[in-house]
Amino acid sequence: MESIQKFLEFELLHIGTYVISVFTIVRIVIIILTAAILLWVIKKTLMRKQVVKKFDTGTAYAIYQIIKYFIWVIAFGLILESIGIRVTVLIAGSAALLVGVGLGLQQTFNDVISGVILLSERSIKIDDILEIDGDIVKIQDIGLRTSKGLNRDQISIIIPNSLITTNKVINWSHQTRHNRFRINVGVAYGSDVDLVSEVLKSSALENKNVDQIDGVEVQLLDFADSSLNFQLLFYSDEIFRIERIKSDIRKVIARKFKENNIVIPFPQRDLHIKKD
């Protein structure tokens, strides 16, 4: 027993008043292992099926992230205390330094605060589909400083959290994943309006990703200079792949227009040359 005590008290490093012994290393390892095990248990608990039924995956993830940062901050403070560094004294003594660092890292702190807001408010969650600066992104991870998303070209994008909280962002998944989309098309004057409407509806309903229950709607938008402008409206759950779905529907529309002799016009101008 005495030999174990001597082993634990053996000094590995001595700097001024700070002494790091074998016992100090053991305490640090125990703190890290305890924090890691505790987080593992919390994560398993939050992700259990009965819990996920109350919270969706994005909400459970946000709660876990907040708890994770909180636990690691406490663990880091305990590690400093184990080494002999008083956290309260350290914070008080470095207040002026923190102000200087804060000014230099203002944007970083802004991103971190934005990350805390995102995780606590849960306005943005994992698997949400956002429209940021004209780009459609599917959120894969929400970190404390940055979030990671995947765009339609399968490119991973790192997004500073402040960009999400301070800019105008459209969350296509916020209320429901069942959204209405539009396709605009113009036809030549003299076309049968009822036939055009029927062709547009049938073209949309041929696509398996278009909701068949809510149906589709066709509106005559305007009498333009060169065309009758129609708008095809339909519902779909495939938000992330909607541009590909629109492309498929447009191909069907083009084929059916050709079969029914419906013409898509192009602007034309008559030029009159006056002779003296």
How is the largest sheet built, in terms of strand order?
6-5-4-3-7
Number of helical regions: 10
Give the strand tally.
10
| Weakly predicted, low-confidence segments | none
Strand content: 15-25%
Overall pLDDT? 80
Q: What is the 3D form?
A: elongated
In total, the number of domains comes to: 3
**First and last CA, distance:** 121 Å
Largest sheet: 5 strands, antiparallel
N-to-C SSE string, H for helix and E for strand: HEEHHHHHHEEEEHEEHEEH
**Rg calculated over all Cα atoms:** 31 Å
Would you tell me the structural class of the helices and strands?
A: alpha+beta
Helix share, percent: 40-55%
Describe the protein in words:
- Residues 182-264 form the Mechanosensitive ion channel MscS C-terminal domain.
- Residues 108-174 form the Mechanosensitive ion channel MscS domain.
- Belongs to the MscS (TC 1.A.23) family.
- It is found in: Cell membrane.
- By secondary structure, this protein is α+β, with helices and mostly antiparallel strands.
- It folds into three domains: 2-93, no CATH class; 122-171, SH3 type barrels, CATH 2.30.30; 179-259, Alpha-Beta Plaits.
- The chain is built from ten helices and ten strands.
- The protein has a five-stranded antiparallel sheet with strand order 6-5-4-3-7. A three-stranded antiparallel sheet has the order 8-10-9, with helices on one face. Strands 1-2 form a two-stranded antiparallel sheet.
- The longest helix is centred in the N-terminal third of the chain and has 27 residues, at 57-83.
- It starts with a helix and ends in a 17-residue tail after the last helix.
- The model has no long low-confidence stretch (mean pLDDT 80).
